[in-house]
Design a protein that fits this description.
Layout: E1 11-17, E2 40-42, H1 48-53, H2 55-60, E3 65-67, E4 72-74, E5 93-100, E6 104-105, H3 106-118, E7 122-127, H4 161-166, H5 180-195, E8 200-203, H6 221-225, E9 232-235, H7 245-249, E10 253-255, H8 257-269, H9 274-277, E11 289-291, H10 296-300, H11 311-323, E12 328-332, H12 362-373, E13 379-382, E14 390-395, E15 399-404, E16 410-415, E17 421-424, E18 435-439, E19 442-447, E20 451-456, E21 468-469, E22 473-479, E23 486-488, E24 491-494, E25 499-501, E26 512-518, E27 528-535, E28 538-541, E29 548-549, E30 551-552, E31 561-567, E32 574-578, E33 583-584, E34 592-593, E35 598-601, E36 604-608
Parallel strand pairs: 2-3, 2-12, 3-7, 7-8, 8-9, 9-10, 10-11, 11-12, 23-28, 26-35
Antiparallel strand pairs: 1-22, 4-5, 5-6, 13-14, 14-15, 15-20, 16-19, 17-18, 18-19, 21-24, 24-25, 26-31, 27-28, 27-29, 27-32, 30-31, 32-33, 32-34, 35-36
Helix pairs in contact: 11-12
């Protein structure tokens, strides 16, 4: 297995195979069937094409859905300068046409949605329905009619529900949402976006649009536009005395901004007492809530409310909100290099670019996969030994996430609901400290300082008297790399101690497709396809090296094209073609991304290939 970056010296690494976490590669739960049970990546100001390019990373980090920035045609401010501080123009629509200069065209959006479906990822669109830009003369001609808007007057009293819903928000022209014609236009736009491939919506400034029972100025806006057929819909409610959380939650899911503030406060105080972080601070059932550690508002607005947060703090907070049973957690992707002691917008990237790589950090991904695997499991929060700096979020008897806010490493010994067995923490590569044992409802192990520990099995492990044991197996791999990686292999140990390593044959629970490789003439007779996935610092082997044997597609000696059948569940994974000695890509490069029915050569993907009758002559 020769897949990592080449260095000057060859070293032999002993790497832990985390089969305690997954007994087979297909046991990895990349996403949940429904958005509400999974996690959402807010790809803040990423372009459609950028998101499309990063789909393999997003899938391998365990997200079920991606939320885009607003996709309506918007005002081009600052002469189109894509400095990140100009994100505000995304939220200043000038029409209901789809596509803008920051995130791309409608055709690019359709292409993104089509590609995301191949990865099992769903797309949520941020929809701006309350207002247009500040000067309606900058709107498209059909939106310059003053009669489409409320009177041009700002909000003076933020505790007055009428002013909050019927006046201009920070100068943005407030649309007369009581107008049935406007309601129908919105509904038509939302249905068009869904037809383009989206699965749901986030509604910007939702509390600034009236509800049916608001006295004198109520309307049927929300009952009308929400009847669009989307799978998932939620409204931005920054909670206060006018937000009417319970009433809005009768129509859609809502944001739990108060709970976000509670998490910030707990992080600031270094205090994760269960009773402090358990309550969502909303008179709404938790399954109607969207939770976050930070959002684009409290990071990107002028008050820079969460800019001070470090990556470490975000990871600790994310481990808490995403491992819990209910609510739907949203991970905000900051601009590259932003915050945590750096400027809010450090000019390391511009609008349209990928955000900071924290979204695919190993501990973030591990928690996402944990959440995906825990659907249906009840939660129990406890502080071992009443330590307010250590929090365990247990999910039934199946898994636990343990957050240690202490600076120092500590030895854990606690009662637990977790099933008896041996567990390995995939967020820690140190084989001396990443093992945990549960026996007689007590868990023991080592917690690193300021760390997230993730423990679970894809099946409930049996004890030492059972027929099957799930554990860690030490294997030696000759690799040219100085970076330790965890390798998950398709392996189990039976009660007689015989190791059964997964064969080259897949258990195919999906449809299949073919991959093709044009083998160089200098290679040997055999050709193999080795498949793997990277999840943070973890490599999931989908086949054992050197891989699955490929077959020549015809008997023409002048044609050196070989094929292999692949499960569609592996679309978006990585592949290395080899003959046991030579490989493509060469040592020092990561594998090619799998694209269904793709033809590859030593330089990578060539095209989608279709076999013809000539291939079988």
């Amino acid at each position: 297995m020769k897949i990592f970056i080449n260095t000057k010296k060859d070293i032999l690494l002993s790497i832990v195979a985390i089969v305690a976490q997954f007994k087979t590669a297909e046991a990895v739960v990349y996403h949940t069937d429904s958005i509400e049970n999974g996690t959402i990546l807010h790809a803040f100001s990423w372009s459609f094409n950028t998101i499309k390019q990063r789909l393999p990373d997003i899938r391998n980090a365990g997200y079920t859905a991606i939320q885009t920035s607003p996709i309506q045609e918007c005002f081009i401010g600052d002469n189109g300068n894509k400095y990140f501080g100009n994100w505000i123009f995304e939220y200043q629509p000038i029409s209901q046409n789809i596509g803008n200069y920051i995130i791309g065209t409608e055709d690019e959006f359709k292409s993104l949605c089509d590609e995301a479906k191949k990865f099992g990822i769903k797309i949520i669109v941020d929809a701006v329905l309350n207002h247009m830009t500040t000067d309606i003369n900058n709107c498209a001609p059909e939106w310059r009619d003053q009669n489409l808007f409320h009177e041009p007057k700002g909000i003076d009293n933020w505790n007055d529900r009428y002013e909050v819903t019927q006046r201009d928000l920070v100068g943005l022209r407030d649309i007369k949402t009581q107008n049935p014609d406007y309601q129908q236009k919105v509904l038509d736009m939302l249905k068009r976006i869904l037809a383009d491939g989206a699965s749901g919506f986030r509604y910007d400034t939702a509390k600034h649009i009236e509800l049916p029972d608001d006295p004198d100025y109520g309307s049927q806006f929300w009952p009308t536009v929400l009847n669009n057929g989307a799978e998932f819909q939620y409204g931005e409610l920054l909670q206060d005395d006018t937000s009417r959380d319970t009433a809005y939650a009768n129509y859609m899911k809502i944001t739990a901004s108060n709970y976000g503030d509670s998490i910030l406060s707990a992080l600031n105080d270094n205090d994760f007492r269960a009773e402090r972080v358990m309550n969502y601070n909303a008179d709404v059932h938790p399954d109607r809530l969207i939770t976050w550690v930070e959002s684009h508002d409290n990071y990107s607005n002028d008050d820079q409310k969460t800019v001070y947060l470090t990556n470490e703090q975000i990871k600790l907070g994310w481990a808490l909100i995403a491992s819990r049973e209910q609510t739907t957690p949203l991970f905000f992707s900051r601009p590259l290099g932003g915050g945590g002691g750096n400027p809010q917008f450090p000019n390391q990237s511009q609008l349209g670019d990928e955000g900071d790589p924290l979204y695919k950090d190993a501990s973030v991904a591990a928690v996402n996969f944990f959440r995906n695997a825990m659907v249906g499991e009840n939660e129990y929060l406890r502080n071992p030994n009443e330590d307010s700096k250590v929090l365990m979020i247990e999910r039934g008897k199946k898994g636990v996430v343990i957050i240690n806010l202490n600076q120092d490493q500590l030895n854990l010994e606690s009662v637990t609901n977790l099933a008896d067995g041996d567990y390995v923490n995939p967020t820690n590569n140190d084989t001396n400290t990443n093992k945990f044992k549960v026996a007689d409802s007590k868990i023991t192990g080592t917690l690193l300082g300021r760390s997230v520990t993730v423990l679970y099995n894809d099946e409930t492990p049996s004890d030492s008297s059972g027929n099957e044991t799930s554990g860690n197996i030490s294997i030696n791999l000759g690799m040219n790399d100085e970076t330790s990686r965890n390798i998950i292999i398709n392996s189990s140990v039976s009660d007689d101690g015989a190791e059964d390593v997964g064969s080259n044959e897949f258990q195919d629970h999906h449809h299949s497709f073919k991959l093709y490789f044009e083998k160089p003439s200098s290679w040997g007779n055999d050709t193999f396809a080795y498949l793997y996935n990277e999840i943070g610092t973890i490599v999931v082997e989908l086949t054992q090296w050197p891989g699955k044997t490929m077959t020549k597609v015809n008997n023409n000696d002048n044609n050196n094209i070989y094929s292999v059948d692949i499960s569609s569940g592996f679309d978006g994974s990585s592949i290395i073609f080899n003959d046991g000695d030579n490989q493509a890509p060469e040592i020092g490069n990561l594998g090619y991304i799998i694209q269904s029915n793709g033809l590859y050569n030593s330089n990578g993907f060539l095209k989608t290939y279709e076999e013809t009758s000539d291939d079988h002559n």
